């Protein structure tokens, strides 16, 4: 029986040698060899890992099919979800929906400088989340990781109804309660009223007042509304 010399088939393994595996194990490497070289019997082979991205494929000493050795190289994919620490998955507060460049800048500033052509970034503005996902053809990454962020709101835009009718004593709380009735989406616990001023040109009640709404929680709102 003639033996197959590995050094004679080396070009077959290195023709597209940047193979991708998920873990650095003998089983993974031999499986890749089986996929690449049709008909090869990996039961007659063993491996010797030489580095994080190369290995030596060796014919077993008792093999009647193969002789010699061949070096192969590969890339171990990184799982995106395991790269990003949990404390780095909150992007922070924005005045408007973040962009891809915002996400990239945040990640780079926190020490995560990906090969950006191998990932894609998508957004869900309803849930205020961004997802970094490995592209299907990536040889470097697999999986995805989600990030959360918060977009604070401009009081000028969220308060749309400003003509209020207040019965009883005019207080900050009564003003805010009526404001909430006419602008249901407001979080009145994150704002207050300042500069309440009466219009003295009116001689009879009901008197007209003006006031300014300002945020008490700058993480939720910004700006002011008169």
Please explain how this structure is put together.
By secondary structure, the protein is α/β, with parallel strands linked by helices. The chain has 3 domains: 73 residues, no CATH class; 72 residues, no CATH class; 69 residues, no CATH class. 20% of the residues lie in helices and 34% in strands. It contains 6 helices and 16 strands. The strands form 6 sheets. It has a 4-stranded mixed sheet with strand order 2-6-4-3. It is rod-shaped, with a radius of gyration of 32 Å. The termini are far apart. The N terminus is likely disordered.
Short account of what is shown:
The chain has three domains: 4-76, no CATH class; 80-151, no CATH class; 154-222, no CATH class. With 226 residues, it is of the alpha/beta class. Helix content is 20%, strand content 34%.
Query: What's the average pLDDT?
Result: 83
Quaternary organization = single chain
Strand order of the largest sheet: 2-6-4-3
3D shape:
rod-shaped
Q: Which sequence of SSEs, written as H and E, runs from N to C?
A: EHEHEEEEEHEHEEEEEHHEEE
The value of Rg in angstroms is 32 Å
Structural class: alpha/beta
Q: Biggest sheet, in brief?
A: 4 strands, mixed
How many helical stretches? Answer: 6
The tally of domains stands at 3
Question: Distance between termini?
Answer: 94 Å
Strand content: 25-35%
What fraction, in percent, of the residue positions are helical? 10-25%
């Amino acid at each position: 029986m003639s033996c197959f010399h590995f050094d004679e088939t080396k070009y077959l393994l290195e023709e597209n040698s940047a193979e991708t595996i998920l873990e650095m194990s003998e089983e993974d490497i031999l499986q890749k060899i089986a996929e690449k070289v049709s008909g090869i019997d990996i039961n007659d082979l063993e491996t010797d890992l030489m580095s994080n991205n190369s290995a030596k494929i060796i014919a077993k000493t008792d093999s009647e099919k193969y002789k010699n050795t061949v070096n192969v190289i590969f890339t171990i994919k990184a799982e995106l979800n395991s790269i990003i620490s949990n404390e780095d998955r909150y992007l922070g507060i924005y005045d408007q929906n973040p962009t891809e460049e915002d996400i990239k800048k945040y990640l780079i500033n926190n020490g995560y400088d990906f090969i950006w052509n191998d990932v894609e970034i998508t957004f869900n503005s309803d849930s205020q989340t961004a997802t970094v996902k490995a592209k299907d053809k990536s040889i470097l990454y697999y999986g995805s990781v989600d990030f959360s962020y918060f977009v604070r709101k401009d009081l000028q835009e969220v308060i749309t109804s400003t003509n209020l009718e207040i019965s009883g004593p005019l207080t900050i709380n009564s003003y805010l309660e009526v404001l909430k009735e006419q602008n249901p989406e407001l979080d009145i616990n994150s704002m207050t009223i300042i500069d309440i001023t009466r219009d003295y040109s009116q001689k009879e009640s009901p008197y007209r007042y003006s006031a300014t709404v300002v945020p008490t929680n700058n993480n939720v709102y910004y700006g002011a509304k008169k």
